Amino acid sequence: MPSPAGQSTTASVDRRGFLKTSLGASAGVLAAPAFATWLAAADAKAATGPAAFVDDYKSNVLTNQTPETNAVVRILGGMSQVWKTGDAWDTGRVLDREVLRANMRYCARITTSRTEAQAKEAFLYDRQHQSYAMIGGLGPLAGLYRSGAKAVTSITSAPDGTPAGKINDAVPADAPAGSALGAGSYDSDLGTVAKLVDTVRGPFASGNPAKFTFQYPRPWRMNEDSEVVDTGTKDALGYPVYDSDVIVAPQLLRQRSETPQEDGGFPSGHTNAFHLAGLAYAYAVPERFQELVTRAFELSHTRIMSGMHSTVDVIGGRIMATALTAATLADPANAELKAAARAQALAYFTEKTGTTPDTLYAYAHSDADDAYADREANARAVRARSTYVLPRRGRKEPLTVPKGAEVLLETRLPYLSAAQRREVLRTTALPSGYVLLDGFEQWGRLNLFAAADGYGAFDTDVTVTLDAAAGGFHAADSWRNDIEGDGGLTKRGTGTLRLTGHNRYHGGTVVEDGTLVAASPGALGQGDVRVTGGTLRADEVLRVRGSYVQEGESTLELLLRRNHGPALTVSRRVLLGRGSVLSLRLDAERPPVAGTTVPVLSAPSLRGRFDRVELDSTTLRAVPVHTAEGLSVRLVKR
């Protein structure tokens, strides 16, 4: 069938017996020899290949338990390279000892060093409805969401030890009328958002078909080599004792299943649910996109901390949730629902907070005690938990972004086209070579946290248009990644784009309209810079590695600091045309004083002059001083 880029999709079996599909230049391993039925049919399907996940996601039902019949089993095919499913739940065989031994050792280490507080936290998120647990990622908006959606839970604390029986979430008896578990009630101010979350977590989103397919046991039933060894004894609760170094949290001992043949570990169902709910909330409330992604990773990590799941289980749950969310959001049947949910969330939160679409983002990040306030810490946690113990092997391979994946960024980067959002996903993706991430279509390689920060590379020239009148991210956004590549950037539209990375793109930068903010010394990459309209603003001392040209009705806005070098250093020539304006701001912490001459612009060659030099001061004015090294200003009292 046609690929997302209009290419034909082909399939073949490589020399190791794995089915591989090719989308253009990239290829991903789909299945292992364990899937005999699938491989037998591979040659017959080679001419067309399997359907794209987003077109086949409704095949994920219990009656379909092969990669040929089930799209989820297909995208999780990387697991079949490390684990061969047996005839029974306890007869599977290790194919990749390095990966699965590291997997079990990690689980043993983390559960044996777990604190009591961590055990209680693991219980809380094991028993609490996953959609409710994810609300915490909304930060300052979380309380407003719970009240607006009438979302409640009965699991608010953990027992000190092992409870007497199984515990399940329920609507508390004293909850307000109409309250509901999970994402909340459809009959509420945020009912459409709640419905979107439930739709993403709908009838085709279960991990059970894949659990039955792979039959990889829970970690507490396995030893270091992923072998199930029943000691023949039972613990004080009547459960069989296995030869395992993984210790289940005491609070969860009675929550374990007593039927191991129906209780596989891979993929983690809780992890799947956390990420499904998190990405649905992120679509409706993109102002908290990265924080919701981080929380999904954090809550998923408690599955390992609890002893109930292993690292490969959690990775599998995330992969399937990413694909399932994209498929549900891309489904035309849900187009009206997702748009209504976004509109409802925006209207509700701006009303309740007294903000506008332009100021809601700031409010959503205004709490200093927000558990996810540290963006860099969030990024580190997400990156580490994307691969856990998996070693990286093989050559660097490009990613062909899975069909439909761009919908995941539809509200976070609304000013980009679908093709541009696909390019963002491609250029921010995790590297190839991680066995579970390199399955069919490579959904596991998508790094949504990084993608929310814009492009990772300009491999071709990029033109971006932001519209201040449209509000929200249309009006202003920040790209925080370190951008590389041979292409360049052209900024259009009345909105504001902020570049914060240490960028290394070579194709140059053009500002035609609106405002482009250089928030780091290397924000503008390695090429020439041309300003023909709008404003180029530097929030830091700025370096232009090529030439700098300014012409037309345009403004260069620079920051002046006391006892500092030039605000702008240009490696090659500077050409200033008619209509160009220089606007200077005094640094709030180290402002230069009257009577001093402050270097502004340094370059080997400067031709032309600014039509006007402005200074944001009521007591000082700036007098231009042209020198052989460029331009300085002398500050004099008005």
Write the layout of secondary structure elements.
Elements: E1 9-13, E2 19-23, E3 26-31, H1 36-40, H2 42-45, H3 53-56, H4 71-75, E4 83-84, E5 93-94, H5 97-112, H6 116-127, H7 130-133, H8 142-149, H9 191-200, H10 208-214, E6 230-234, E7 240-242, H11 269-284, H12 289-305, H13 311-330, H14 335-353, H15 360-364, H16 375-387, H17 418-427, H18 448-451, E8 462-465, E9 476-479, E10 489-492, E11 496-499, E12 509-511, E13 515-518, E14 529-531, E15 534-538, E16 542-544, E17 548-550, E18 554-560, E19 568-570, E20 573-576, E21 580-586, E22 597-602, E23 605-607, E24 612-615, E25 620-627, E26 630-637
Parallel strand pairs: 8-10, 9-11, 10-12, 11-13, 12-14, 13-15, 14-17, 15-18, 16-19, 17-20, 18-21, 19-22, 20-23, 21-24
Antiparallel strand pairs: 1-2, 2-3, 4-5, 6-7, 22-26, 25-26
Helix pairs in contact: 6-12, 9-11, 9-14, 11-12, 11-13, 12-16
Keywords: Hydrolase, Protease, Signal
GO biological process, one term: proteolysis
Signal peptide: 1-36
